[in-house]
Amino acid sequence: MEYKNQEVWFVTGAQLLYGGDAVITVNAHSEKIVQGLNDAGTLPVKVVYKGTANSSSEVEKVFKDANSVPECIGVITWMHTFSPAKMWIKGLQNYNKPLLHLHTQFNKEIPWSEIDMDFMNLNQSAHGDREFGHMVSRMRKNRKVVVGHWSDAKVQGRINVWMRVAAAWADAQDMTIVRFGDNMNNVAVTDGDRLEAELRLGYHVDYYGIGELVAYQDKVTESDINDLVSEYEKLYSFADNCKKGEKDHGQVREAARIEIALRRFLKDKNAKAFTTNFDALHGLDQLPGLACQRLMEEGYGFGAEGDWKTAALLRTVWVMSKGLEGGSSFLEDYTYHFNGEKSAILQSHMLEISPAITSQKPRLEVHPLGIGGKNDPARLVFTANKGSGIAATIVDMGNRFRMIVNNVDVIEPEAELPKLPVASSLWIPQPNLEIGAASWIYAGGTHHSAFSYALTNEFFEDYADIAGIELVTIDNDTTINTLKFELKVNEVYYLLNKSLQ
Ligand code: MN
To answer: What are all long-range contacts of 336-345, with beta carbons under 8 Å and residues at least 24 apart?
Structure first.
């Protein structure tokens, strides 16, 4: 299990109308379902059965407990028999964590020759879950509805996604983002309302002067640096000028010094993400490139130029994809390759791309950087793996946050890029560059994104539902007309729906 200290509670809705014996059977069925879910080995979070809820006060109590127990990251509800849904009102009014409604039933098939009225009364989820669903909809509460038999791999797959998102949501409620310097001057899309982000998404953004990092840097010893450079030598191919005794080896050592200082600083601040700004590097030898790359790989969210929203989202993406195949990284739209249906975007950044998105052995190189006015920085150079992935971003639209996701296909470059001194990824946005990029621009998306090979659209759908934010998906089904229409409808929806502002 990827999320060891967390749990999801399972609550079965029932009532005493059919007598205590019925509830005893319902309870036994629920225990078997929960055991079946845990034993399947397909779920990343332990399911804990909390018994049947047979009255308004029992429902209220279990939801209040769920709110207050930190290990509990979400609740799964299921109505075995008919559970009159007015008894769920007070509990749902109080409840403030993710909710999954599992619309299943204990038996997989109808026992044709055996079925009688008693059986039907005991196994009426088809009926009881609709009653419950009405109440949740009537209360305008977001939840995920998963339909199918609990033993089915597809059903468990959908629960798995929701659990991962719930774990990431819990992680974000306690997320400190360290910001060295401010937003890059004059840049609009990376900025936004940090207070609203904390209210809505849980992100806590703290500013630090770069001088505080410099103080950590001054405490790094030569022996600390020796150890880290040895690690680099094991993991990466060193360019000739970076090797021990060569001209630029000193810059590799300076990069290691910054990495050690940064890791210690983030640990002391209990931070899960951070941003840098190339205009605020006083006292550092070089722009932190290698450090950002390696810290991203470890699970720290990162955003360049003060982009705290992307830093936070990248951390969330990393938590959601724990243990899954395929890495994640901060990326930036850089340069186009116009080539008809194969038109693509070269994704890169000045330096900061996570090596988690390549299976190549990265090359450690030092080159001049024409921005920031500092020493030549060390960086890892590689090309991202071929495959399908998702680029995601969150923008502040003034009255709400909008999450934009675009499915993309990472392709191999047509030729080597021998003079490009940074990591890169070449992708075709779905459905193609013409529609994909236009849609992203109409939606007001950033030039930065949190990219993942491991996640599917379902993750972002669940995340946006839990957060109560707008989601715009750009994929193979997108047309400009439908996208523009969706944006207009969303505008009205969010203007009218005050609770979402
Ligand atoms: Mn940038």
So the answer is: 336/433, 337/414, 337/426, 338/433, 341/432, 342/411, 342/428, 343/428, 343/432, 343/433, 343/434, 344/411, 344/426, 344/427, 344/428, 344/433, 345/426, 345/427, 345/428, 345/429, 345/433, 345/437
